[in-house]
Each structure stands twice: as structure tokens, then as C-alpha cells.
Amino acid sequence: MSHEDIHRDDDQALEQRLRAALRPVDPGAGFVGGVMARVAAGRPGKVRPLRARTAASWASFALAASIVVALLLAHQRQVQRTEQGLEARRQLIEALRVTGDKLDLASRMVNAPPSPNYSDSGA
Q1: Distance (Å, rounded) from C-alpha 4 to C-alpha 96?
Q2: Of the residues 1, 40, 106, 113, which has the maximum number of CB atoms within 10 A of its CB?
Q3: What does the alpha-carbon distance between residue 9 and residue 3 come to, in Å, rounded to a whole number?
Q4: Looking at residue 48, what is its pLDDT?
Q5: pLDDT of residue 46
Q6: Which residues of the chain are under the pLDDT cut of 50?
Q7: What is the model's pLDDT at position 19?
């Protein structure tokens, strides 16, 4: 027996089992009457008026729009804070550069040899 024959036999057996499990079954004479009695005795389905459905739709839309606006505002705030941080960083770097330049100038002045133009009279 080949590999294909084994698969074909398995497929045929599976198909037979499926056909047996899915064959139509007569529900009996009282089935329709029982279903109809339950439908008649059951509570009526909740049918919302058009105005309520429209209001619910608008409320859902308003909620979704509010969430989107809140997210956009939060994003805008984050962008603004990032820009402020970058500006503060730029200002700090500029201040450090100016301070460094001034310290270099002061260091050169302190460490420079005395110039001959100055008189050392002590007075």
C-alpha cells in the first residue's frame, strides 16, 4: 500500500464520519410548536427608538472626538516642552561659551608678564 493510498483511505473515512455526523435529523412533531410557544411567551426584544439610537451615535462620536482632541493636545504639549528644552539647552551652551571666553581672557590677563608701561612705584 502506497503513501497516497493511506491518505486516500483516511480522507474517505473522515468524509464518511462527517457525512454521518452532519446528516439531517427530524426534530419531531412538537419542535415547531415549542419554538413558537417560547417566542410568544418571551419578552419582546428591546427596540430603541430612532431618537435614542441617534443620540447614542452622536454620544459615541463625541466621545471619540474628545479622545482624539485630548491626544492631539497632549502631543502638542509634548512638542512644546521639547522645543523649550532645546531652547534652554542652546542658551546654556551659549552662556557656557561666553563664560569660557571670559575666563580665558581673565586667565591671560592674570598670567601675562607685566608690561613695561606700568610704573612700579608702589603708590
Answers
A1: 82
A2: 106
A3: 10
A4: 65
A5: 63
A6: none
A7: 86
